[in-house]
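Hi Y.,

Following your request, here is the sequence exactly as I used it, all 287 residues.
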Amino acid sequence: MPTKFAYHPGNVAHSSATEVSQTMEPACRSLGIELVPMNGATSCGAGIIRQANDILQVTLNARNFAIAESMGLDIITPCATTAGNLHEDLTRLKQDPLLLAKTNDVLGRTCGLSLAGEVSVHHLLHVIVDELGLEKAESKLRNPMKFKIAGFYGPNIQQEGACGGDDVFDPNYLELLVKSLGGNPVSWGSSRTNSVGVPGLFSEETTVLKQVASVISEAKSAGADMIVSVCTLSHTILDVYQGKARRSTGLSTNIPVIHLTELLAFAFGHYNNRLAQLKTRVAVIGD
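Below is the corresponding structure, written out as tokens. Let me know if you'd prefer a different format.
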């Protein structure tokens, strides 16, 4: 697999979670991964567009795939939601020739693109473990991440074909990476692959807050200093809504939540001021 990819930042890395975009680039630079912007690419739909118009989401993602194919590159993303949704739609298009033909007709009429289905989608975590090797990350280590870390996967990339060589039901790639960066991965339960309800945030907020509180509470009970998420959307919800989740449920939810790209960038010596702020948060945080 090449170390040059068409870069899809995900749904919120360039808006409400700019810290992911800011740390993805230096982290990948340290690892020798070249990111080539997918000019004109759109959101993957995050499963939300699909609820209203399934074919629209497939067609929008077919356009994303066609853009990457025109660049001659596979897609890399730091967001598990994006990786999972792109994988699902690409699989459907590859397995359904009629759907692919109809979608190509729309693409040809609207943007002059065509999809052959030869592109593939990869999450950053799987590229590091499967292709670069953990020793590559370890060789770039400048700041050992001496924290007790709860790794959060979410449900979207835990599907056959979307999680590299990791186990679909009991993943451990994130824990292996945390350990290679000098961290102490905590052992916790099924919450690490549970949904935090992102698509239902505005329609079923009470349920979503219960999901958020449950995940954070379990991580804290396992002794974690922080949560590291491989999903940009989940990372944002777990971070921004934890106070509201505590007030709604009464559970303990006060804990730093960062994204995988931040962990990597800090470990590789980038944004040392932010790492210092994180260490302070870990030291003084309490309920």
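DSSP finds 13 helices and eight strands in the chain.

Thanks again,
Q.
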